[in-house]
């Protein structure tokens, strides 16, 4: 996984959760080069979500891609653990994201309010501001929550706000989102 998927101004540049750019085809080498063979594996196994299960292949793919990218645009492989499940693989804990499908996130903006907030009714704006003021400072240096409990409570608050103002954070409900642990693996 690469850095932030969306480089627009509203996105949090320190964010290292599940909402990331995916690797692409390496056009400077032929299709039968190892990096492109791994890219085709990534497409086949990861599909639309880009979630793969072979850590060794993913690490090799990231290693190869990092040989072609600059220092500020590095790929890293992360392991995602449902909810507060124990983690056994020895990765470096980054934090808890509020994720759907290990691919989307409610935290990629750093809980900052978007420009469209001014169109919301005043009570919703006030509640959204309260949510942002309370939870945004609790995001760690990776743009994630340090504790499962805080992540869970924030998701409950966001779900309640979404019920009052449909599509505030996402289209539909937030029922597909849950706290997940993110670990960087090497």
SSE topology sketch:
Layout: H1 34-46, H2 55-66, E1 77-82, E2 92-100, E3 104-105, H3 122-135, H4 148-164, E4 178-185
Antiparallel strand pairs: 1-4, 2-3, 2-4
Helix pairs in contact: 1-2, 3-4
Helicity, as a percent range: 25-40%
- Which descriptor suits the 3D outline? elongated
Distance N terminus to C terminus?
12 Å
Please count the helical segments.
Answer: 4
Residue stretches low in confidence (pLDDT < 50, at least 5 long) are: none
Biggest sheet architecture:
4 strands, antiparallel
Which class do the helix and strand fractions yield? alpha+beta
How large is the share of residues in beta strands? 5-15%
- Strand line-up across the major sheet: 1-4-2-3
Number of strands: 4
Mean pLDDT: 88
SSE string, helices as H and strands as E? HHEEEHHE
Description:
This protein has a domain at 78-185. The protein starts with 33 loop residues before the first helix and ends with a strand. It has a four-stranded antiparallel β-sheet with strand order 1-4-2-3. It is 30% helix and 13% strand. It has helices at residues 34-46, 55-66, 122-135, 148-164, and strands spanning 77-82, 92-100, 104-105, 178-185. The protein has four helices and four strands, in the order ααβββααβ. By secondary structure, it is α+β, with helices and mostly antiparallel strands. α1 (34-46) packs across α2 and α3 (122-135) packs antiparallel against α4 (148-164). The mean pLDDT is 88.
Features:
186 residues, alpha+beta, four-stranded antiparallel sheet, 4 helices
Outline of the structure:
The chain has 186 residues and is α+β, with helices and mostly antiparallel strands. It has a domain at 78-185.
